[in-house]
Design a protein that fits this description.
elongated; 92 residues; mainly alpha; 3 helices
């Protein structure tokens, strides 16, 4: 029973770290992109700021999906269910 509690604690700790990393990434995005936009509008008429905003934004969405476990293709908890199934059936 103690091993199971330790396992759950470690999983929860990893999840909290993933969420913390995501929120750090989000905060950095919210600070850097407006700064880049300011530089863009002060220096040129070509709106190049959309490229880092969209690229980093796409990465941010993927980071959010990973941190929250959201996967529109495989469903929620697919990885854990598959691990449990493979362990049960011993098919690896």
């Amino acid at each position: 029973m103690e091993n199971q509690d330790e396992y759950k604690y470690q999983r929860a700790k990893e999840k909290v770290k993933e969420l913390k990393d995501f929120y750090t990434n989000l905060l950095t995005y919210c600070l850097v992109i407006p700064f880049l936009a300011y530089i863009n509008y002060q220096t040129t008429s070509f709106i190049w700021v959309v490229f880092p905003a969209l690229g980093w934004g796409f990465g941010l969405i993927l980071h959010w999906m990973h941190a929250t476990g959201y996967n529109p293709f495989l469903g929620k908890n697919w990885e854990e269910r598959t691990i449990q199934e493979l362990m049960r059936d011993d098919k690896f």
